[in-house]
């Protein structure tokens, strides 16, 4: 089995052609990037606004309760509802993208919100004291300070969307999910396993690239350590060297409301595997 | 208001389900052991029978009919609906998870022999008998047939003057075919269309069930692989292209069972096969797919009408 | 709502399977993640290894995980254990980090106080560290619960029945109401799981309320 999976992965026949692995990877990335981009256009401004004004925090809770909605069901519902209304091949693309967008709004929104919320009030006051307008505070203080958590949310979104975009193959979309669904339908477990491995690798590669981006764009003056320690105080007094100190800030955002409100942060954090090792 | 109460009731039901699991005794996780154990070793009668089904409505309906007929003969039968495609449920029959499943003669032939050539119903049946693995056995086949077909809309048929699959030659190059994913690789699927008719479509869109029907209706696909008994063909005025070369062969409905249970199941299932006709299956299928009736209810009514239930 | 009203029995049966398929892995996953998280905490070199490994597991698409389980486990293709084991793996992937971080969140001063009072080894772990880590672990468990309930519905594509069957059947037979019912039932189930974990957490950590509403 393992040998045949390796054969499958390394065979040129697997990679070439219209339905080949190369083309499927490109499709898969395209769906993922499109979904995250659309979701970010909605969630980033919203998160900034909620974090900046402190108003409508329930939006974050509502977005998080969306996590409980089964993706498969949402996909079927949207496909049946939207599919017949759209002409051409977009009828397959749009429903799946809509569902993926809904899937990744929560991690992005909670990342942005948690990031802005965690900005040191003193820094904000200082900026106001210097005569900055509200917009300037957002652009020059809150966004740069919130960047690490915002990017964490984004990375978490990418990990989720890359793994989940596979289910969209069930409603006729391409991407790497084709190998899973078609493999199951035809009893060809080698391509199912091979496709799954490619999905995992793709998720890790994208996460790695984003980790580098994160390192590059986050202000060097903002190691994150200073602000985090302050927020983490309640949870842990002493933090041993080499341990991960990223979680508490996000977690403390949790509003403790019913429902999955307070997963916001942990999951934004947890689904993101490898970061802690690289930091 | 009514909706509200229903939502509330739904949540209560879910809660009850949750608490019920604490009561023990009804652990669904243990469900696979009794059925598996009985067929693996006992090699004879007695024990529960699980009738599986593929993941399309007709198969579910037939499974309910089989299970109902078995129960009427005092056999402890249950169904395991929507297992998946042939490649999966035959594995389930092999490992003893199920003991019977509704099948189609020609499809079995193609499954076990990529170069399967027989098209006459009786010859197909005999040939398939020779191809089946040791532990499997077909009971009596029904005259009822549900074949694959290539279907187009009335407009496409008229404008392209299509009557048979052969007419697609030269035209399919600009058309998209919609079909379940497995159609792409099966010998009587896309490879068969090319080999037998020289028909090659521009592109392939993997779709199932109602989504496929919708896609054909809305023009996202120009031709679709839909079963001949599918009520949506009549409902939407689709045109089913004639299979002049008998690519799809004969697809008589037949119960495929575990060999060691065949003797015990035949008295209940053979009369069912006799009672089923292509028209009857189409009519019953319309009740589940178009009228949204439950397969089990439709099956019960059918069995009662035929003194089988 | 006619479809729903006619199918309470089915919804109920499917919901019960769903509870098992999503709930049992939570318990198993927690039981396995506890020692793993403790190890990761105890030997800080293990931490990155365990965290990366669990993160890697979480990127495996659920559909593939379900399908490949019989090949890995040697189970029957329709065995519900395929789903239970796969979901347990996801649960562990989510919880190892939470457990490690939860144990890490216990203040050093508290541990020293416990040591001074003679708490050692297992007694210190079960008597001091674990109870204090409950809030963080419970938060992780709630994430896992919601995620499990959602992922289990995919098992319908491999022939293991649960609420996801309402989704696939509704899709194939074009019954939107059935799909919506399936979605609502899943969400309700997720909320119930969430509520139960929250309730157990409160029972286990009475001191949190005694302190009053922190922050």
Describe the 3D structure.
Chain B: Keywords: Signal. The complex is a heterotrimer of chains A (279), B (309) and C (215). Chain A has 279 residues and is an all-alpha fold. Chain A has a single domain, classed as MetI-like (MetI-like fold), CATH 1.10.3720. Chain A contains 14 helices and no strands. Chain A is elongated and about 65 Å long. Chain B has two domains: 47-145 and 251-305, Periplasmic binding protein-like II (D-Maltodextrin-Binding Protein, domain 2); 148-241, D-Maltodextrin-Binding Protein, domain 2 (3-Layer(aba) Sandwich). Chain B contains 13 helices and ten strands. Chain B has a five-stranded mixed sheet with strand order 7-6-8-5-9. A three-stranded antiparallel sheet of chain B has the order 3-10-4. Chain B starts with a helix and ends with a helix. The model of chain B is unreliable at 1-28 and 30-44 (pLDDT under 50). With 215 residues, chain C is an all-alpha fold. Chain C has one domain: MetI-like fold, CATH 1.10.3720. Chain C is elongated. The relative contact order of chain C is 0.15. The mean pLDDT of chain C is 89. Chains in contact: A-B, A-C, B-C. Chain A binds chain B through residues 79-80, 83-84, 87-89, 91-92, 169, 171-172, 178, 181-182, 184-188, and chain B through 84-85, 87-88, 91, 178, 180-182, 184-186, 205-207, 210-211, 214-215, 217-220.
Helix content of chain A: over 70%
How many angstroms separate the termini of chain B? 40 Å
Number of separate domains of chain A: 1
What string, H for helix and E for strand, traces the elements of chain A in order?
HHHHHHHHHHHHHH
- Shape of chain B, please? globular
Name the structural class of chain B: alpha/beta
- What name does the CATH topology of chain A carry? MetI-like fold
Number of helices of chain A: 14
Mean pLDDT of chain B: 85
The CATH topology of the largest domain in chain B comes to: D-Maltodextrin-Binding Protein, domain 2
Low-confidence stretches of chain B: 1-28, 30-44
Structural class assignment of chain A? mainly alpha
Topology overview:
The complex is a heterotrimer of chains A (279), B (309) and C (215).
Chain A: H1 2-10, H2 12-15, H3 21-53, H4 58-65, H5 71-82, H6 90-117, H7 121-129, H8 134-164, H9 177-185, H10 189-217, H11 225-232, H12 247-251, H13 264-270, H14 275-278
Helix pairs in contact in A: 1-10, 3-6, 3-8, 4-6, 5-6, 6-8, 6-13, 7-8, 8-10, 8-13, 9-10
Chain B: H1 2-20, H2 32-42, E1 49-54, H3 57-72, E2 77-84, H4 86-94, E3 100-104, H5 105-112, H6 121-131, E4 136-138, E5 148-152, H7 154-159, E6 176-179, H8 190-197, E7 203-206, H9 209-217, E8 223-227, H10 231-235, E9 239-241, E10 253-258, H11 259-275, H12 278-289, H13 295-305
Parallel strand pairs in B: 1-2, 6-7, 6-8
Antiparallel strand pairs in B: 3-10, 4-10, 5-8, 5-9
Chain C: H1 2-6, H2 8-42, H3 46-58, H4 62-73, H5 80-104, H6 108-116, H7 121-152, H8 164-172, H9 176-204, H10 206-210
Helix pairs in contact in C: 2-3, 2-5, 2-7, 2-9, 3-5, 4-5, 5-7, 7-9, 8-9
